[in-house]
Design a protein that fits this description.
The protein has 284 residues and is of the alpha+beta class. 25% of the residues lie in helices and 14% in strands. The protein has a five-stranded antiparallel sheet with strand order 1-8-5-10-3.
């Protein structure tokens, strides 16, 4: 993100309110290209509505979108959204999941939930993940704009499944991105219109957490080799803090023909010790 003050402001909103909105942050041509891509997947792969009520029986959910065309590669790498997620988590975050959230006419409201409630940690807790909802059409109360309970990421409990809670609709124009701490209580709204509500969910997690989608197995290695390096790192071809995720003391990105990004932590320790010795005894 080019403006550091705006970056800090968006990150502060996530920490305080649980969410923030980047209005019209997506180029119109990319919005249309992504919608066209989803329509192609639906047509060519027979993708249909989800099979569970939570996912949405009138909702088109396509997972593992990175395998379905280069246009989708641009989403996790979006400069503004990624910079905000890195500010809330850190630069060694991972892409946890990436799917479509296309609400069809008649889709009922999703139960209020939060995305980290399966993780056995006391609440409130440090941010574990940040979800970026890409609005590929206008988000309105009528077509199922995501509903949120502001500040609920700081509650000491998760919502009771199926219970009604007062919430607000995160309305926004097409081309906008809503980013939120995934501990925020939220849920898709009801689509009472005759049109689809087009959206994507680009979900980032801290680098020490297991990803929702197993991208290393779900994405063929020959395809991952074509990704930009930053996208390879986001998919898990990286090592967190020089320790978590290594393969026999090597950075997994080497499997894709790249130079490793950093030393392993124990190697770095030895290098630091050697430098200190050299500094204190330069003559040997």
């Amino acid at each position: 993100m080019s403006n550091p003050e705006q970056l800090l402001s968006h990150a502060a909103r996530i920490r305080e309110d649980g969410y923030t909105v980047l209005e019209r942050a997506i180029e119109p041509e990319l919005v249309e290209a992504l919608k066209t891509g989803l329509q192609r997947i639906e047509r060519e792969h027979g993708a249909g509505y989800a099979k569970t009520s939570f996912e949405g029986l009138n909702t088109l959910r396509v997972n593992n979108l990175l395998v379905h065309g280069e246009v989708f590669w641009r989403v996790p790498l979006h400069e503004q959204a990624l910079a905000i997620a890195e500010q809330v988590l850190d630069r060694e975050l991972l892409l946890s999941s990436f799917c479509s959230l296309v609400l069809g006419p008649g889709q009922a409201a999703q139960p209020m939930h939060e995305d980290t409630q399966q993780i056995p940690l006391p609440r409130p807790h440090v941010a574990l993940s940040v979800n970026a909802i890409w609005a590929l059409s206008d988000f309105t109360e009528a077509n199922g704009a995501t509903r949120v309970v502001p500040g609920s990421h700081r509650f000491d409990r998760a919502p009771e499944y199926g219970k009604h809670y007062d919430s607000v609709a995160a309305t926004m124009p097409a081309g906008s991105i809503m980013l939120f701490d995934s501990a925020l209580w939220h849920g898709g709204g009801a689509n009472t219109t005759g049109e689809r509500r087009w959206a994507l969910s680009c979900y980032y997690c801290a680098g020490w957490i297991r990803q929702q989608e197993n991208l290393q197995l779900g994405i063929p290695r020959e395809l991952a080799q074509r990704f930009p390096r930053r996208l390879q790192e986001l998919c898990g071809y990286s090592v967190y803090k020089g320790q978590w995720g290594h393969i026999d003391n090597h950075d997994p990105i080497e499997l894709l023909g790249r130079e490793r990004g950093q030393r392993m932590v124990w190697e770095a320790t030895d290098v630091a010790l050697a430098r200190r010795r050299e500094a204190t005894n330069p003559g040997g």
